[in-house]
Amino acid sequence: MGNKLKKLWESIVVKTILAIVAVLGIFAAVVSMIGYTEVTDALLEQYADGAFRTAGIALHFTDPNRIEEYLASGGEGEEYESALKRLQQICNSSGSTFVYVIVPDRSDYRHIQFLFSTMNQKTNYSRFPFGYVRETTNDEYALKYKRLCEEGSARELVIRDQGYIETDPHITAIVPLINSDGEVTALMCVQRQMEELITVRNSYINKVLLAMIFAAVAVILGLSLYLNHSVLHPVRIIAAEASRFASENITTGEKLTRKIRRRDDIGHLANAIDQMEEQVHNYVNHLTSITAERERISTELELAARIQEDMLPNIFPAFPERADFDIYASMNPAREIGGDFYNFFLVDENHLCLVMADVSG
After folding, report:
1. Residue 48 pLDDT > 70
2. Are 276 and 248 contacting, i.e. CB atoms less than 8 angstroms apart?
3. Pairwise CA distance, residues 142 & 174, whole Å
């Protein structure tokens, strides 16, 4: 099992598929991040636009010239209750979570006082009562309040979607209430929860993941079939033939180019294997022929050398019965055989004949 997995891992097809799937995964991740950002920005823009439109409508039902009267009313009176009722209707009909009017403490903008506070009837949150004073949520809110009250900003948006949030992720659109003297007397705030945005965003992520998984599976299946047919199968044929030739060292009647009829790199490889086998086979045959010829010549030369040696006197002492003289001779050819010849013999009791010859050419 381990060997099979190792071979599978070392397969060209598997490596190619894994590389393509990795590239596809990186591409999908990049596209997902871009899409995630674009979807989030588009939904936030849509949310903000809706919240600011709601705030603009609510401004028409809140008189910025009567803020002091609203504060002095104690949250009662026909004018106050009429404005509060209209804001409540706007909150319910627009789908906003809260629509409220605040008066910030302009000394440091660290505290705000609620003048009107309405809550969507479909939510489970609680609203602040009239005149309630609380600390500003954070520095971002304080900065936005200051821009609206002192720096002439026409609208500000606060997005809270990270960290601990008491009323869950939401956006708050803030616009100033400006009286007839051009002074900012209060701030209109519209808060909308980001549940729909999060739902759409999560749905987008899930769809992208499913699409990526489907694409990866399709790529794996498609490439497996294609590469197995176009790459792995012919490569296996070539590898098998190369292994066979390495062990047997003989050619077969059928060439690889007949099994693999292609003009690409694999076809060139098959043709190269055929040529290599033929050249190696011819070389081995030629080498075998040369070796056999050399062995034949060597055998003949050894036989000739032995004959030549046998023709020369090689037993010494040559004349053991004669004590008055002694003779010794040898012949050492430069190669297997030579052209030198010698002999000696007694002509009579008193004469020794010496014969020496040399043949060249």
Report:
1. yes
2. no
3. 12
Beta bridge partners of 358: 340
**In the numeric block, which tokens belong to residue 35?**
């899409």
User: What's the pTM?
Assistant: 0.56
User: Residue 302 corresponds to which amino acid?
Assistant: E
For tokens 């590389």, name the residue.
Answer: 19
List, in order, residues 6 or more apart from 83 with CB less than 8 Å away.
61, 62, 63, 70, 116
- How far the first Cα of the chain sits from its last, in Å, is 74
For residues 176 and 245, the model is more confident at 176
Q: How far apart are CA 75 and CA 9, in angstroms?
A: 76
CA atoms of 179 and 182, how far apart (whole Å): 5
pLDDT, residue 253, reads 66
pLDDT average, residue stretch 149-159: 91
Which residue shows structure tokens 């099994």? 259
| Residue 358: closest CA among 338, 337, 343 | 338
